[in-house]
Design goal:
8 helices, C1-like_sf, mainly beta, Znf_RING/FYVE/PHD, about 5% helix, 5-stranded antiparallel sheet
Amino acid sequence: MDIKPFLHEHYLLLHYYEEQEACCDKCNRKIDDIAYSCGRCKFWLHKSCAEEQLPPQISAHPLHSQHNLTLFFHWSCYICAKCSNLSQGHAYYCRDCDFNLDYLCAFSTNAENNRPIINGHISKKIHHFSFNEPLTLFNYRRVGKYDYYCNWCEKHLFGMSYGKLGFSNQVSFHDSCLINMPGIIVKHPFHPSHPLQIHMVYSDYRCNACNYSLKGIQAYCCKKCRFYLHVLCARLQPSLKVELHEHPLTYFQIQSGWRGFRCKICNFNCGARNKESFCYRCVQCNFNYHFNCLGILSSTRHKYHRHELMLIDSFIEDDSKEYYCDICEEERKPKHHVYCCKKCKFVAHIQCALNKIIDTKLDHGSNSSLLEETEQSNAEFPTHLSIKYVDHPHVLSYNEATEQNKSLLCNACCQEIFYRHYACEDCEYYLHETCTTLPYEVSHPLHRQHPLKLFTDIGEFPCYQCGDHSGGFFYICYPCDFKLDLKCAMTPIAPNKEGPRQIEMERLSKLCPFNQNHKLEFFNTRANLIKDLKCYACLLPIVGSAYRCRECFYTYVHESCLALVREMQHPFHPLHLLHPQIFSSMFDQQNFSWMWSVSCFACANTIDIGYGCQKCDFRLHFNCAYSLKRALKYKSHIHNLYYFGLRAEKRARACNKCKSLLDGEPFYHCMECGISLHIKCVPIPHLIKSKSHIHSLTLKDYFVEDGSGEYYCDICEEERNSKNHVYYCEECDGQFVAHIECMLHTLYISPPYTFDLNDHIFVHC
C-alpha cells in the first residue's frame, strides 16, 4: 500500500510569488517568496515549511539501494529517474550517480511502483545536430508558473520531449519536432537559390540571420555562397510585408544586451538593455526595424469580419496551445503582433488583415535530389557531361569508366567505382552516377516508425545493419539513434531477413570498462575507409571488429583488446587494485583533442586512457601493465627485462645495443636503468624445446588462434595480448601458445635453470 506523500497528494508547482494573497497551509503565514502551490487545489507551502516535513536522507531506496539519497533543492529543473517527469525543487539526490527522485516517487513504496514507468527511456540522451550538447528525453509537465516552449515550433511542450536543462543554454523540443527536423532545406526563403545542408562549421563564420558565431557547431550551410544559418534560425520565416521595404520581414527575438541590430529608420539599437526584445529583420539586406517604426496601422477593417480590428502585441485566446489566424486558417505564433477584434475572438495575422499574403512554407526536399540546375541522367544516354552538386563547390565531370589500375571510392557510399561516375579530379572527389540522385528522405523496413533523413556530413558512424564504420553519407533517425549507410539504406531486404545484424549486435553488446552505465557499440572498419582510427588500449590502428563508447569521448577499443581492460592486481603496485580510467579530465569537444595529459609510469609516454590507482598517483597503459607482469632475467644485465609489444611509440627511443631507433617495434626494457633492446638484439632462440610440450616451439611475431577476442598463455594460463611475440607449436597448428618469458622459464636445465646461447645466459627468476 502506498504511503501518503509527505507534502501533498498532487504534484506541486514551484515559483517565486510576490505579495501573494494566499497563506501557507502549514504555518498560516503569507506567501511572499519561493513557494509550492497545487494547480488543482488551493494548497500553498513555503519552501522552508516543505523542508521541515521531508526527512533529510533515505537509506537503501529500492530504485537506488547502492547509495543513500539526500534531500536536495534544485533551483533548475531535473528529471525524475522513476517517472521520467520534468521536476523542480526538492529531490532525493545521489551526487555520485547523478540520480534524482522527486518526493512523490521517493515515498511511493508499492512494489509495482518501484519500477521505472518508461523503462528504456530513463535518462536517454541523444546527440542531435540542433544543439552542441546531448539532449535528454523527459516527460513534460508544468513545474512552475509558466510553461516551457519548443524551440523549433514555438508551441507549448507536451508529452515526451527532449531538452538540455539548467540555467544557461536551455533548449527543449517536442520529440516529433526532432524527428521531422529536416537535414536538407530546399529553397529556404532566406536563401532560395541553393539547398541548405547540415554541416559542421570549423571556421569562424557567422549566422546570416542572427550574426552570432557558428564555430564548432552544426548549421545549415550553402558552401557555394558561404551562407550559414543556425539550426534554430532556419525555422524563422518572413511574416510581414510593408511598403517601405521590397522584401518580406522576419520577426526576431533579441537577447538582452545584444547590440548588433540597429533600426534602419531611427538608427537606435533594437535590443533592450536588460530584457529580451524583438525587431523585424530583412536577412537578405541585413536591415532591421523597430515594429513601431514600420508605420503599421493601429486599426483596420477586413471583408471577413464586420468589426474593426485593433493591432495588439500578442494574443492567447485559450489554453488549447494551438493558435490560428481566422482569415488564412494557418497557424500563428502566439508571441507575434496580431490584429484582434475586441468585441469577439477574431484574430488575424497582420499580413492577412492587410491583404498581403506571404508564402511561408519550408520545402524539406523529400522528393528532390542533390543535383542542381540540371535534369537527371538517362540510364542509357547521359544528358549532361558535367553537373553542379550541392555538396561540392566545383563542377563534377562525367566519366564512363575508371582508368585502368586506378582504384576509386565513392564519397557517398564508400564503395569502389567501376563504371559511370562523376569526378572532381582536383579535389579527388568521386560519386557514382546513382549516388547523385539520392532522395532526401526514405522509409526503411528496419525502422518503420520514422522516416530516415539523408545527411552528407556527420563524421564517422557504424551502420546499424552491417556494423561497418565509415565516413560517407548516411540515412539517420536522430531521436532513435538509428543510422544506415547508403549501401544498406538503398538495398531492399526480404521481410524475414530484417535485422540479422541487430540480433548479432545485441549478442555482442558489452558494457564500457570505464563506466558500467555506458554501452559499447560494435562496428567494423575497412582499411581503405578509415584513417587514423586507433585503439585506446594498444594505440594501434583499428581494422576489422572493434567497439566504441560515445559517452566516454568516443573511446575506441579493438575487440581483441577489450578483454585486457578490467581491474588488475599488479606486482609494481601491490597495495591497491588498478582500474580502467580516463586520465585526461579536460577534453576539448570543439577540436576533439585532449587539452593536457599525464605520463605512464612504465614507458613515460603520455597516457589518456589506461590502468590507474584510485588512491595513488599511479598510471599504466594497458599494454604496459601486462608487459610488467612477466620478467625476463638476462645474465648480461643485473636487472629484470620486460617485454613491450608493438606500439605507436612517441618517444625517440634507441636500442642500447645496435643504436638504431626502436620506431614502434617490440623491445625489452629495464625499468631501473632505462636500457632498451630490440627483440632481435636479445639472443632469444627462434626454435625451442621444452618439457612443457611434446613438440618444438617456434618464435612468432603474433598469433591469433580464433575470433573469440580472448587469448591465453598455455603455461601460466593468464591472458595474453594477441599482438605480442609468442612461442607457438606449428605441428599442433597453434593449439599450444605461450609467452616468451613463460617458455624460457620452463626450460629443462639443471639448477639454477640457466642456459647459454651465443655468450649470453638466461636464468629462471
